[in-house]
Amino acid sequence: xxxxxxxxxxxxxxxxxxGDYYPPGTGELPIADQRAIYNRMCRExxxxxxxxxxxxxxxxxxxxxxxYECGQSSRTVLYFHGGGFIVGGLQSHDDICAEICARTGLRxxxxxxxxxxxxxxxxxxxxxxxxxxxxxxxxxGPIILVGDSAGANLAATVAHHARGKMAAIAGQxxxxxxxxxxxxxxxxxxxxxxxxxxxxxxxxxSGIRISGxxxxxxxxxxxxxxxxxxxxxxxxxxxxECDPLHDDGPEYCDxxxxxxxxxxLYDEKGLVHGYLRGRTTVKRIEExxxxxxxxxEVLGQGKWVW
Length: 306
Prior knowledge:
This protein is of the alpha/beta class and 306 residues long. An eight-stranded mixed β-sheet has the order 1-2-4-3-5-6-7-8, sandwiched between helices. The mean pLDDT is 97. Strand 5 (143-148), helix 5 and strand 6 form a beta-alpha-beta unit. Helix 4 (123-138) crosses helix 5 (150-162). It contains nine helices and eight strands.
C-alpha cells in the first residue's frame, strides 16, 4: 500500500510528530513504560480547555469519571477513551472531552475504566456498564455513547447490553472503532502495516486483554459477533481509510441497517487511526472532528438527519 497516494502532507506531519514520542521498540517495553510514553505524548498534544468549561472528578459506582459542564444540560455524553485497553485514562482525552462539551453544550462524562493486563475482560465492559447506570441514575435525560478505538468498542458493548435495560440511550458515535472484525480479511490485510496502527499491534492488544482463549459469541468483547442487531440506538460511525480497523465500521453499520435500524458511516479519506489529536493542525481532521461534534449534537436532540 502506497500511503503517499492517500495521505496528504498535513496528515503526514501529524503522523511524524506522533512518532517522535514513540522510540523504536516501544511495543516490546513493559506496560508501565508504554503507559509513560503514551502519557507524555498526550501531554505534548494537550490543547487546554475552551472558555467556560468546568470539571468535577467523581466516583461512579466504583469507577472514576470526570464530568465536564458548560452550563446546564439535560443531555449527557458518556465518553470512553481509546488506547488498546492498556493505556489512557482521564488525562489522555481531557481536552478532547472538554472541547466536545464546549461545542455541543452537552455534559460530558469521561470514564476511567480499568486497564489490561492487570484487569482482564470483562473488567472494562463491567466498568463501562457501571458508569452508564450511574449516569442514567444521576442525570435523567438522553445519553449519547461516544468512544474512539477501544473506547468505541466499549460504547457499542454498552449499546448492545442496554437493550431492554436502559431507555436513556439516545444514540452512539463510534470513532475508528475496533469491533471484533476478522483479522484475516479486508482492511486488516490491506492496511496491515498502516501508519499509527498495525495488525500486529491489534493482535497484541487483543491477546493482552484476555486470559486463555479468545471469547466466542460474546458481544461484551466483540460487538460484531452479536447475533441480534435489532433495537440498537441510532448510530454514527467514523472509519479512517488508512486503518486496519477500517472495515469494522461499515460492517457494523450494515448489520444495523439490515435489522431495520438507523446507522450512518463517514468514511474519512486519507485519515489514520488515532487522528483526533490532529484536529487543530490538519484540515481533513478538523473537518472530521466537526462532523463528530455535529453527530453528537444531532443525536442528543433526538434527531436523525442522514
